[in-house]
Amino acid sequence: MQKTHVVIVGAGLAGLACATRLAQQGVEYQLLEATDRVGGRLQTDSLDGFLLDHGFQYLRTDAPIAQRLLDDDALRLRPFAPADERLGTQAAAVPASGIEQIPQQLARALPADSLRLQATVEAVAEGHVQLTDGSALGFNRLVLATEASAADRLASGFDGANVFHATRPVAAASTVCYFAADELSVANPLLFSSLVPAQNTSAQNTSAQNTSAQDTSAQASPVDVPGIERVLVISQLAAEYAPPEKSLISVQLAGTIDRPWQQEAAVRRQLRSGCGLQVDAWRLLRTYALPEGVGGMVEGALETGWQAAGDVLGSLDLH
């Protein structure tokens, strides 16, 4: 049976941050990821020339852990401008090529052969993990950097002193709908947040300026659409998110939608009546249901993984 000093299960942000710190200290490890790409909940899909992040996600560039681990210039960060206090920070940005560039940057910096994709851990036993392909990998220390439910399952019945957790609390469930539209021009790309409309929602393209009297009066009643949390013209932050002369709009809803193809009309009604937006010409690209949410996860996940590595190093007396 092959053996390594530390096994890290899960190559999301926490697992990658943990691996980064261990690598900096020269500790041998294997990072195991069940899927075919790193990043966990930080993923970006490409569709018809649009970049679709899995959820409303951004980087707080003023976070110390982000400054420690990430190369902002290489990420080609596109800041929210003007800075918007509704995001809880004055230093929010997205990578030009999608949020998944953050985990990919961390993965590229890891030592060769330290990361294994499509390596699913089936069970944890004394001193080793069992993979679904029938192989086993021994360890001196184990870090569980998976979703909390998976970590609990793997750790159940195994009370090992050499097992460390790098899991984050589950965030509120949400759904993100992506719409394509002809190019919009707005002063503040965050059109709507936390049920409070931005000041410039009338600055739409020509068709959007023809808001009906009913829609205009509804702008004063954002409580009519409690499901909508944010509406963002993300392509105005990062033009790379959309093809030329097109806009990409991200609509975040509270909770998950079971049958989005049946509820698209309801979402459009909420956008019209509660946000005062003309959306008839918008084309729905894709919907992502996120039962475990993504709120505040970038910096929090990095910090969790970094701290787990510190705990491992402390157990080895290698601070």
TrEMBL record:
Species, as recorded: Roseimaritima ulvae
PANTHER family found in the cross-reference section: AMINE OXIDASE (PTHR42841)
Keyword list, A-Z: Oxidoreductase
This protein's name: Dehydrosqualene desaturase
Annotated Amine oxidase domain residues: 13-83
Keyword Oxidoreductase set for record: yes
GO MF terms held by the record: 4,4'-diapophytoene desaturase (4,4'-diaponeurosporene-forming)
Cited InterPro entries: Amino_oxidase, FAD/NAD-bd_sf
Xref: PROSITE patterns: PROKAR_LIPOPROTEIN
EC number: 1.3.8.2
Domain of life according to the entry: Bacteria
Enzyme class: oxidoreductase
